[in-house]
Amino acid sequence: MQRIIELKHVGAKHHVRGLLGGLIDRLEEKLQHVRADAVSIHAVFEENGTHQLYRAALTCHIPGQTVAAHEERRDAGAAIRRAFAEVERQLEKRKAVLRHERQLRRVKRGQHRAMR
Fold this sequence. Notes:
With 116 residues, the protein is α+β, with helices and mostly antiparallel strands.
């Protein structure tokens, strides 16, 4: 898996890099079913000192789809975690579509109604 981490105007680079690395590792575990060389993650984190805002942008390229999330918060850790949570949610939704879970629930619901 290719990892690209960009930090712009960040004071505590070591702390932010550690948090991003840990969350990317967790995301990597969830993407074990995809070939490692076919996945790339691009994380951008920037600090706007004037307004005390932190921006986290995360883009995950997987075969057949690109998943992205952007978050802006006054707390650096919260911005990063929320962006990763959004990407994880989108990846779970993609997995459900690939498994045809929505259609399976409809079929089960139809069978339940036919039994009444």
